[in-house]
Amino acid sequence: MSIRPIVISGNPVLHRPAARVTEFDDALRTLVADLHETMRDEGGAGLAAPQIDVLERFMIVAVGDFNMGAME
Description:
About 25% of the residues lie in helices and about 10% in strands. It contains 1 helix and 2 strands, in the order αββ. A two-stranded antiparallel ribbon has the order 1-2.
């Protein structure tokens, strides 16, 4: 797992089409872990792969009793 830099508004990557995810493999498991760690570090409630410069249609969302981590 690693915290990845977040792409901010205005970056062209956020306007490019992302690839459909067709297989849940080790690379996707790593992406999920990185998205989760990055989201928690930033105190967010959701994060999409393109926001960390990965052009895949995948996102995570915190639901329910979520500890906002950095926002506490």
